[in-house]
Specification:
The chain has 7 helices and 10 strands. It has about 250 residues and is an alpha+beta fold. The longest helix is centred in the middle third of the chain and has 50 residues.
Length: about 250
């Protein structure tokens, strides 16, 4: 009894009805209701004391633990967590802004690159559009100018796609080049100029510079021949394993 009383741990031994039978000198005075509540789970009395209990023969033992240091550490960790959360929110917002700025910079860079690479065609489109405004819509010249604008605009669109692709890869599939040629040639049919193509499906890849050179040459030839062009035949064939672009033209 004497040893129990002078224990540094605050403890009470109760009977089954939670009447206190023994108590150490350091035990806090607790009501029957508080003692009974420990039967279900631990109870935090204040910011420093945790109340626990365990069944023993004839009743229960209830003791108090000083958890002030644990709570202090918990509060510090909570404050650190909130600070880190605030930092994460700031970093996340900064990342979002940086990503948005990078996206805009990339879009502007690609736009400038497309403008620079297709500037001659864009200037010719503007000149043709200006000329078009002074010509009757039912005249042959009006249709000729529309055809030229259509061919130039198609080239600009397809060349832009190639430029964007070149920004991610230094190769271009032959099928992508074939698709560009097919769209450009379809414009000739709209203008009443027969055009046949032989563009086989293939998984072959071209160096991007070679694809640029091929499509640019095709466009230059088409624009130079357009005034007197009566027939155009375009093929892509393999010569010693190398894709070869050929164009056969009939002009007046």
């Amino acid at each position: 009894d004497a040893l129990f009383c002078v224990s540094s741990v605050g403890m009470q031994i109760t009977d089954e009805n939670y009447r206190i039978c023994y108590a150490s000198d350091s035990a806090l005075p607790l009501s029957t209701g508080v003692l009974r509540s420990t039967e279900e789970s631990e109870q935090l009395l204040d910011n420093a004391t945790l109340l626990k209990s365990y069944p023993i023969q004839g009743g229960r033992i209830v003791w108090q633990e000083d958890v002030s240091e644990l709570i202090r550490v918990k509060d510090e960790l909570e404050a650190i967590r909130e600070e880190l959360q605030d930092r994460n929110d700031i970093l996340r917002e900064q990342y979002r802004q940086d990503a948005q700025r990078y996206k805009l910079e990339e879009q502007n860079r690609l736009y400038d690159l497309v403008q620079r690479e297709t500037q001659p065609q864009l200037q010719r489109i503007n000149a043709l559009a200006s000329e078009l405004r002074g010509i009757p819509a039912d005249s042959p010249r009006y249709r000729e100018l529309l055809l030229r604008i259509l061919i130039l605009a198609t080239y600009v669109k397809r060349r832009k796609d190639m430029i964007v692709s070149a920004d991610h890869s230094r190769v271009l599939s032959v099928n992508r080049l074939s698709s560009a040629l097919r769209e450009s040639c379809s414009n000739l049919s709209i203008g009443g100029i027969p055009c046949n193509l032989y563009l086989p499906e293939t998984e072959a890849l071209l160096p991007i510079d070679a694809a640029f050179a091929a499509y640019d040459l095709f466009e230059d030839v088409l624009e130079l021949a357009l005034d007197t062009l009566t027939y155009f035949f375009v093929t892509i064939a393999q010569e010693n394993g190398v894709p070869s672009l050929r164009g056969n033209l009939e002009c007046g």
